[in-house]
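Minutes, project check-in
Item: structure for the 223-residue chain
Input as provided by the requester:
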Amino acid sequence: MTQGFPVRRTCLLAGAAGMVGVLMIGSSFAINNGPPLTAPDAAFLSYAVTHQGPVLWGAWLQAVGPALIVALALTLVALAGAGQRPAGLLTLFGAGVLMTTSLMEIACYIGQLFTAPAEMPRIANTFGYAIQHLYFFVAAPSLFLPLGYVLLGSQVLPRAFAWLAILLGATFLALGLATLKNLVLPTPVTAFAAVQALWWFAAGLTLILRSRRIAAETLEAGS
């Protein structure tokens, strides 16, 4: 198993990364809740002064969390042998779009901590709501749809994960288009984003549980 060990180790590390990434993002949302847009400017200024630590900590968690999830996604592509195929390359593109969207939103979190000019916290918060649209109608679909197609053609994860990924990508796209005229996404729509976290967590756990089998199959295919 000397040749298979690196493959198993990769599965273990990537699976753990995805699971930890989901937990980090969940924690960031729990500790970083700014005032609603209907709040007065004074509330935004007060929040910026009194919540600098939690906001920065939450921003860090939300920056690293998606990066770990992307590591899992790209590992799945590599294990499926699709790195040079169109679906694999499109997954790489989707991962870049997802990270860009996430980092843009994080920049808004940090931007709301600046209190000069006095309108800056509200402006940054407003931009954060605007960026949420990008996640639904481009970032999530551009990652889930090609990744689902990659998984359909491999045995890395059970086929149910492939179909669920495609379904998630299509649902995010549909929700993004349906709410295109909403400046602020409805709460039920934003809450749906938590569903994809369950997919990533389950995918990471399953990859860990199947790591020995994947390593053995890789060794057998290379022999």
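Outcome recorded: The chain has one domain: 5-222.
No further action items on this chain.
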